[in-house]
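User: I'm writing a short methods note and want a consistent example. For Zinc-ribbon domain-containing protein, I'll paste the sequence; you return only the structure tokens, no commentary, since I'll be parsing the reply automatically.
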Amino acid sequence: MKKCRYCAEEIQAEATICKHCGKQQRNPNDMAKHINILGALFLTFSILMIIGGVVINQFLPMAGEISGDSTAIRITSIIGQSIGTVLFIFAAPGFICGYGLITKKAWSRVFGIILSCLSLLSIPIGTMIGIYGLWILFKDETKDLFSNPPPTGE
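Assistant:
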């Protein structure tokens, strides 16, 4: 027997709707799939940022070499390395949060909310990930899942 989250009456453990108040009972494990997807999206977006950083870091300096001007070579090298470094730095939180969400670490929900808000600024892909992340991470089922994580043996 378990208690209804809304009316506190006892109901069967496998019940999905309370027979007293008629409200649907939430199962925190239903959101586990969405949390894993969000973690994978953060990891994938971070990998794409790193690939972009490597490409810019390696190929932008070549644009200066085409002109043959030493000043252009220096400037494009500095710009390429700066952009590549910034993309590497921006990718790190996505890796950390993605790992935390997939492994259901308690800190990853708050970190995911912050990262989702920041992702909203990265139009258009980051905006979609940010909206999806905020929708998932603010649900009560997700709060329950992170306050009572499932056993690691599942």
